[in-house]
Amino acid sequence: MYLTPGIRQEKLQEETMKKAAILCITMCFILGISSVNGEEPSYEILTGGSPVLQRIKDSKTIRVGVNPNFKPFSFIENNKRVGVDIDMANRLADQLGVSCELVVPKKFSDLIPMLKKGHIDIVMADMTKTFARSKEINFSTSYFKTGLSIMINKVKAGKDHIPLDMSYENFISKLKRNNKEEGLIIALTRGKAPARIVPNYFSQAQVQYYQTNEKAAQAVLDAKAHIMIHDELFLKVWVNDNRKKTLYKVVVFPEPFKVDYYAFAIPKGNQEWLNMLNVFVMEIQTSGYFNALLDKYME
Length: 299
Hints:
CATH class of the largest domain: Alpha Beta
Organism: Candidatus Magnetoglobus multicellularis str. Araruama
GO molecular function: ligand-gated monoatomic ion channel activity
InterPro entries: Iontro_rcpt_C (IPR001320), Solute-binding_3/MltF_N (IPR001638)
Largest sheet: 10 strands, mixed
Number of strands: 12
Keywords: Signal
Protein name: Glutamine transport system substrate-binding protein
Structural class: alpha/beta
CATH topology of the largest domain: D-Maltodextrin-Binding Protein, domain 2
């Protein structure tokens, strides 16, 4: 069959368009499979002038400062460091495409100096957001709402005529009305936020400082102090872990008296790094990942 030059040109164009359409469909199919499998394209880290982000990119390692001992967030189990913070740190490293180096200070109060000196890239250690701290470091958006609560030794409190009301408002009211505030002994962890805040709530009380949360809690159990003030989650976990000793003797108030928020901390002057962390926080919250970690380590 004879085809005129014009018809041959039209046929050639049709064949070219068919091939292009097939190629387009094939690419869409491939991308569709990736989308179904939950895979995203690989993106390069654009540091945007962030020195910390640039260091992470160049070294292919993120140095994460964690809490020395704060169950369920960071603790030792079977000779291995585990916890909510550890899983989050590894997830962040995976999403950045780098390895994770956990840095454990001798004490919690060492973390901010380490961050400022460039020894770590981020603090993932259940650090409470405070205005005072924000003068020296930057905080991400909050990933966990908690609060300060009270753990009380009922036996010692009863013996010393300290109120046993499980409401902070009623507790402090009766304490003052009965002139018992000066006799109240509070166990606190040195270097933690409660050590700075407690004087605002219990200005006349006696304060004992301990190097770790566990030692402060043990002081209450041993009747060396009437109460311990700390994060409500730690107090509840500690009482539960030691329930054979604390049963009917040591209890935690049902509600915190001061609301706090945990956030990640990074050095000043790293806005691009902070932007990325805020998106990371959003994703671990909206995906249910963070709550799943709490359930995992609170069993």
